[in-house]
Specification:
alpha+beta
Length: about 120
Amino acid sequence: MRHRKGFRKLNRAPAHRKLMIAGQVKTLFTHGKIDTTVARAKETQKLAERLVSRAKAGDLHSRRQAFKVLQDKKVVTKLFEEIGPKYQNREGGYTRVLKLPPRLGDGAEQARLSFV
């Protein structure tokens, strides 16, 4: 039973799942949007929102915590210098998940994760 579990497993081992979601967050911060499945988009949204909130704080500890997840100095710099200040006056809800038509190959539910 999955009562009160806070995340989706996405049929992946824990290490693979964390790396996959971190990679999607890096792509989101780099390009501003990603197209993926609905479940992956919702899990990616959680981490992205957390990192944008850290970027709003802008201190060294927050920067190091973001680097621990993203592992890319250019993306962390963009997050803290462009994305964080952009949402300084917003309390939350920095991203949105929009549903797209199903994928042609296997009919999986698709979604677009983008910034508000």
